[in-house]
Specification:
Blueprint (H helix, E strand, L loop, with lengths): L5 E5 L4 H12 L5 E3 L15 H16 L3 E10 L6 E2 L12 H11 L7 E11 L6 E11 L15 E3 L2 E2 L5 H7 L1 H25 L1
Parallel strand pairs: 1-2, 1-3
Antiparallel strand pairs: 3-4, 3-5, 5-6, 6-7, 7-8
Helix pairs in contact: 1-5
Bound molecules: inosinic acid.
The site of inosinic acid has 14 residues, from strand 3 and helix 3.
Length: about 200
C-alpha cells in the first residue's frame, strides 16, 4: 500500500529554517507534501517556553490556512550563562537583532569563560486544524567557540561546535544529518506514525 503523504504548511517566515526543514522532510521515508505560497498573520512569540511559542506559530498558520501546520522554535542554551539565551535566542542583542549582533553579544558574554558547553534545542508543534497540538523536541550537545569559524549555515552556526567542527563548517547535508532540528523532525515522524498506528488499532476493534 502506498503511504499517504503528510500534508503540511511549514509555519516559518525564516528562509534559512524553511530550507533546513524541507531538506530533512524530503529525506524521510514517509512522504511529506509541503504546501507553499500561503500566508498567515505574524505572531508575537509571547510564551516563555520553546514549546509554547512553537504552538502559537503552528496554530496561527493552521487556523489561517485550514491545513496542518508545523512550527519550530529553537533556543541555544549555554551552561555558563544559566541556559541563556534559550527562548530569547532571536532577541539576545535586542528586539530586531541581526544574526551578527546576537553572535557578537554571545562571544562578548563568554569572553574569558572556561566552561563553553551548550546545546541547541528545537521544539516542534504539529497542529491539525481543530485538534490538539503534537509537540516533540530535538537536542544536540556542543560548545561555544571563542571566535567565528566557517561561512555556511545561519544564526549561531559559526560559534556552535560539535566534535571539532562548527555547524558553519559543515555542508547542509552534514548539519541536517545530526542537527537539533533534524532530531526534532525525526521525533515528529515517529510520533505521527505512532498516532496513526493507534488510529488503525482503534478502527480494527
Ligand atoms: P527562532 O526559533 O526563530 O526563535 O530562532 C531563535 C534564534 O536561534 C534565532 O536567532 C536563530 O537565528 C537562531 N537559530 C535557530 N536555529 C538555528 C540553527 O539551526 N543554527 C543556528 N542558529 C539558529
Amino acid at each position: 500500500m502506498t503511504a499517504v503523504p503528510h500534508r503540511v504548511v511549514v509555519a516559518s517566515k525564516n528562509p534559512d529554517k524553511i530550507r533546513e526543514v524541507e531538506a530533512v522532510l524530503a529525506a524521510m521515508e514517509h512522504p511529506w507534501e509541503i504546501v507553499r505560497g500561503l500566508d498567515w498573520p505574524d505572531v508575537d512569540e509571547t510564551e516563555d517556553t520553546l514549546e509554547g511559542n512553537a504552538v502559537l506559530k503552528a496554530v496561527a498558520a493552521s487556523e489561517a490556512t485550514g491545513l496542518p501546520a508545523l512550527a519550530d522554535d529553537t533556543g541555544l542554551e549555554v551552561d555558563a550563562l544559566d541556559g541563556v539565551p534559550g527562548v530569547h535566542s532571536a532577541r539576545f542583542a535586542g528586539p530586531e537583532a541581526s544574526y551578527e549582533a546576537n553572535v557578537d553579544r554571545l562571544l562578548a558574554d563568554m569572553d574569558g569563560v572556561e566552561d563553553r558547553t551548550a546545546r541547541f534545542r528545537t521544539a516542534i508543534a504539529f497542529v491539525v486544524p481543530g485538534s490538539k497540538p503534537l509537540i516533540v523536541d530535538g537536542v544536540l550537545e556542543g560548545a561555544i567557540t571563542t571566535e567565528r569559524r566557517g561561512d555556511r549555515g545561519f544564526g549561531y552556526d559559526p560559534v556552535f561546535v560539535v566534535g571539532n567542527r562548527t555547524y558553519a563548517e559543515m555542508t547542509d547535508a552534514e548539519k541536517n544529518e545530526i542537527s537539533h532540528r533534524a532530531r526534532a523532525l525525526r521525533a515528529l515522524a515517529v510520533a505521527l506514525k505512532d498516532s496513526e498506528d493507534r488510529a488503525d488499532l482503534r478502527e480494527g476493534i
